[in-house]
Fold:
Amino acid sequence: MYKASIIVTLSNEYALTENFFSNLLSIINEDIDVFTVVDGETDRQTIQYLYKLENMHTNLSTIYNNENIGYSKANNIGASLSLSPYLIFLNSDTFPIDDSLYKMISYMDDSPEVGVAQGLILYPQTNLVQSAGHIFGFYKTTHAFDGLDKQSPIVRKTAERQALGSGFYITRRSLFLAENGFNELFYNAWEGLEYSLKIHLKGYKCMYYPKAKAYHVKGSGRNRRFRDESYQTGYFWHCWGDKIKMDLPEIYYMQLLEEDYKHQYLLVNGSSIRENIWSILLKGLPFKFIGQYNIEKSMVKNAISLEDSVPASFLQSKSNILFTVDSFKDIINNYRIFNYRKTFMAHDIILDLHGNVIYPQLYLKE
Structure:
């Protein structure tokens, strides 16, 4: 019997397909089998390449669909053919590193209480964190620690999550079959997250396991065909909203220092989430605020320029500032302002929706 089965669905260009399999076949042995589900791909070069691979490798099987049926259905087809104890789901734009897949299998072997495990996912362009599992705010979910250095202590720590991303995760086949696989009402969104959440709510652990690592090109693995996917978000929160714990404050608390609560802060909100929601997210964290300013951030402008967004009365204040933003990357490039504030030892903090806690004056030194 194979140690595990890799399930991958294809709906992309030939170059990415060749790069994906070139990497995959260099890091697995024939004790892992691979089920490739072609999801409506008609590119002749890709099909010929898959035929060639299947003839060369006895542990590779390919299933062809003439129409695009979407991520959940395609993966369910591949999973139904496996006889292995574990299913490893990989996006076709995901590139596991070294022996990461075997580390995931060993971790599951040693951890019977774990139902699903996700490795650390990195941006191939920057080598920074893309996902360390899912975390939840107020009716919102994000990938944990997006943009953070992979050597950060919080990133290197194995941790339980409520949900995980299925582009690079492993689950027990018995659990997957018991849940009838991914929910086929979803189409290229939410299905992997929802499955892991269901397993978590059944009492199994969903674990972020950073010793397993992979690069993810992000957005390249599936040709984008037009679908109205707006219903999916509403459907997900309708089904699960009252069962999900808002864990973002806990993620902050794990990183904040006792010294941080000794200061008073001006609150500057540059997030798309308004201040009344942030008051919920910050509730329970003993910050003392002495003033507040809301940045009117343009919907078409990601980066925040502090000079044209926040008055000098705040930026030149000797009081410390707590910045709340969607991503710390939106604001961290304000070198002039943060360097100026460093001159009088300001104790500023940036909190974002990915659970990142950034001290900008220290970050500038890196």
